[in-house]
C-alpha cells in the first residue's frame, strides 16, 4: 500500500469513527430541568432500599453469589478492628489509599445495608471521618481525588440514614471541598476534563457520583458537574468507535469502562436518565471486545500497559444485563464459579465487587462468534478454534505507539494452544519504580525515555525490528483486511508506516487456519538501501532448535512445532530476555525465538512462520 492509499484509508476510518459517535451536548437548562424533579431519597446510588429485597433474593438463589456475599461480609468483619486508611503517598500517588478506601467503604456499607448490623455502620463512619481529616486527597494526581470522592459518595449515600447529622456534615464538606471543587480550580488540577483516555472516565464518573450523593444540599454544583460529566465523557467514549476496541488494552478497558458504567448507572439510578450515554454504539459493543481479548488460558491479549490476567469484573455483568447479551458472561461465569469453589478471597479483589451482586444475571450462553475485529486507534483482531479451555487462540494488533499507554508492539501477536500460552507479551513495568529512577514514562514521542525500556520497545515484542531501530512513534498500522471465513480466518496489518524510512513495505498476515495451525506471514520490501530485519517472538517455553528453520517449543508436557517457510537464507536462534539496563525488570523463565532476514536494496521477500500445537502436530520431515 503506497503512502497516499494509507493516508486515505486512515482518514476514511477516522471519519467513520467520528460520524458514528457524534457527541450530543446537553445544556445547563436541560440538566436543571431533570434536577427540578423531587430528589430521590437516600440511599439512591445504584440500588435503593426498595430494590434491596430483590437483590437479596437473587443472592439466595445463586450458590456463587452467596459465596461472594459471604466473602464481602468476611472482608467487612476483618476491618472492624483495623485502623482507618492513612494519607501515605507512594511517589507522586495516593492512589493505592484511595482504592483501598473505595473497597472498604463498598464492603462495609453493603454489609450494613444487607444485614442491618450497626457495627459496619460505625466502622464505615470512622473510615470516612478519618479520610475527611486528610490534609488533601492529592489533587496533583487527580485520579486519587476521583476515586476517594467515589468512596466517600458511596459511604455517605448508602449509610446516610444511620449517620449522625454532624458526621454527615463533615463528610459532605470533604466531598465538596477536597473532591468536587478541586476540579473547578482553573486549569491547575483539571487538565483531564477534555482528554480521551481512562482519566476522563474515572474522574467524570467519580465526581458525578459525588454530586449525586449530595445534590439536595448543592443543586447548582450538581447541575454544573453533571452537565460537564455527560458532555465531556463522550470524548473518551468516542475512542470505542466504530467497533468497540479499547485502545489502551483490556486491563484499562476494565478501569476506564467500569467508571464510565458507574457514571451511566449512577445517573440512571438517581435521575432516571443517562442522557443517552448508553446508546453510544462503539461503547455498547465493547464488552464483546473484552470477551474476545481474553484467551482460553484466561490470559489477556495484553498489549500496551496491560496486565496478563483479569478476574471477576462486575462491569461485564452490567453489559450483559443492559444489552441483553448473556454470551458476554461466558468467561465471567467460569471465573465466578471457579473462584467461589477454590479461592473466594479473589472474588473481592476488584474494589467494586459489590456491584456484581446488583448487576449479575443468572445465565451465560456460548458466544456465537469465534473471531472478532475492531478498528480504531489500536485496531485488533482475535481468533479461536472454539470456546473450550484448550482451544487455539490468536490475537494480533496494529495501531500506533503514540496513543495513550501504548508500546512499540505494532504487529505483535499472542498465541494460546492446548491450555498454555506460547507467544506472550511482557506487559508493563512498575510505574512507581520507573518514575523513581527519573524516567518520564508517559511521553510518547520518538526520543522519549519510555522507549529506553526493553518491555516497551519493539525489540521486546512479537514483531519486527529493522536494522536494530525503533518503530516510528507517530506511525499508524491499520488492519486492511479481515475475514472470519472458516476456510481461512485472517487479518492483514499494513505495518509500512511504523517502519517508514526503514522499509518500503511491511505487511503482516495472521491466520488461525482450520487445521489448528497458526500462520504469521510477512511481506517485506527494502527501500534503496539494504536492510536486516529481526523477526522475534517472546515465549515462556523451552526451545529446541532442530535445524535452521525448525524448532520445537515445550512447556507443561505440551509442545508446539515452529517452522519457517521462506526462500530467504535464515537461521533460527534464541535471544536473552535479561534486563538491558538498570531500568528493566527481570523477565524470568522467558526467552525469545527468532531469526534475521537480510534484504538487498529494492528487493522483496515473503517469510511465513507456521506454528503447530502438539495436539495437531505431525513429526517434522527433512532438514530445513
- Strand order in the sheet with the most strands: 7-8-9-10-17-14-13-12
**Overall geometric form:** elongated
CATH architecture verdict of the largest domain: Alpha/alpha barrel
Low-pLDDT stretches: 1-20
Helix fraction bin: 25-40%
Number of domains: 2
Class based on secondary structure composition and strand pairing: alpha+beta
* CATH top level label of the largest domain: Mainly Alpha
Beta strand %: 15-25%
Largest sheet: 8 strands, antiparallel
Report the C-alpha radius of gyration, rounded. 26 Å
Count helical runs: 16
Corresponding CATH superfamily of the largest domain: Chondroitin AC/alginate lyase
Mean pLDDT: 94
Q: Kindly report how far apart the N and C termini lie.
A: 32 Å
- How many extended strands? 17
Structure commentary:
This protein is α+β, with helices and mostly antiparallel strands and 624 residues long. The protein has two domains: 3-23 and 45-359, Chondroitin AC/alginate lyase (Glycosyltransferase, Alpha/alpha barrel), CATH 1.50.10; 371-616, Beta-galactosidase, Chain A, domain 5 (Distorted Sandwich). Helices cover 36% and strands 17% of the residues. The protein has 16 helices and 17 strands. The chain has helices at 3-20, 28-35, 49-60, 63-79, 95-115, 118-132, 142-158, 165-179, 198-214, 219-237, 249-271, 281-292, 314-322, 330-342, 354-359, 431-435, and strands spanning 371-374, 380-384, 393-397, 413-417, 420-423, 464-466, 479-483, 490-494, 505-512, 518-525, 531-539, 542-547, 550-555, 558-565, 573-575, 591-599, 604-613. An eight-stranded antiparallel β-sheet has the order 7-8-9-10-17-14-13-12, with no helix packed on it. A hairpin with a 5-residue loop joins strand 9 (505-512) and strand 10 (518-525).
